[in-house]
Amino acid sequence: MTQSQRDTVIHLIAGGVAGTTGAIITCPLEVVKTRLQSSKNSFVIVRDISNIPGESPHPKTTCRTVPYQKRFSSVPQHSMSIYQCLKHIVQHEGPMALFKGLGPNLVGVAPSRAIYFCTYSQAKQFWNGVLPPDSPVVHMCSATCAGFAASTVTNPIWFVKTRLQLDMNKDSGVTAMQIVRRIYVEKGILGFYKGITASYMGISETIIHFVIYEAIKAELVSHRAELTDEKHSKDFLEFMVAGACSKTIASCIAYPHEVVRTRLREEGSKYTGFWQTLGLVCKEEGIKGIYRGLTTQLVRQIPNTAIMMSTYEAVVYILTMRFNTEFYGKEGH
């Protein structure tokens, strides 16, 4: 196996393991985030003052999901907290509802992250030979190539996952295969690529994320190199912090594409395209509408990205050491 082939295998495995680990741990928050982004399943707290004469300083509060057409009425209301959303799902749909869409997520996250990290690694090697090595523009071009490849290949899987997560009927028992058959019958193969334009727009998030991450990582590596050449557990903790910081900044900047993508993937949606959806959400719900679910996204993304990036770096390190040990062991014989 050549050096290039070995590196490809290492990054494929590391990306798959990292993505799977993060997806399992943060799945409940993914479900809440998706429903908050949707036009049909947004959680709000409605303050019921109908049974209280006059104005009461202590109105009753009930938690429920408000239909879209009533969400912007004069009824006093505000969004549930993340804990209340999780509790609401468990009470009305059962604990397993917190893991809706996990099947497609696990099916898709390993190849998605494997394709992403492998493409990123290979693209980085290519762009380093064309542009100033390890410069920000190299990281931007590499992240663009990786995001485009991963989004194109895995969009049908994420489409099915979103539909599953938006299903709030406890007794429906809808499965991923039923959704796949329904979409194929109604729209054909192209039906699975609804929202792909929003995914492509979301590549900007990965570009920002990796540019910042690589910059922080380079500083950390440079600083550690002055002290020692050995790897320590503290190094991976620093990679977690770097990943969390870079992803937080990127998510805040590029978040609206997530809301648009979810709206485009809704069943029977009135949304038709990226810019049409973005404009419609802004018109009907204001700026808050295109940032709905951001708090949940950050709460989910920070640990997910930290876990994913640290796991990725750890697996790459372990596999590299193993390959080197086997290679030099054979050379010694």
UniProtKB/TrEMBL annotation:
Domain of life, source organism: Eukaryota
Keyword Membrane listed: yes
Subcellular location: Mitochondrion inner membrane
Keyword Secreted: no
UniProt-listed GO biological process terms: pyrimidine nucleotide import into mitochondrion
Solcar repeat residues: 6-126, 134-219, 234-318
Bilayer topology annotation: Multi-pass membrane protein
GO molecular function: pyrimidine nucleotide transmembrane transporter activity
One family name in Pfam for this protein: Mito_carr
Major subcellular site: mitochondrion
UniProt-recorded name of the protein: Mitochondrial carrier protein Rim2
Organism expressing this protein natively: Callosobruchus maculatus (Southern cowpea weevil)
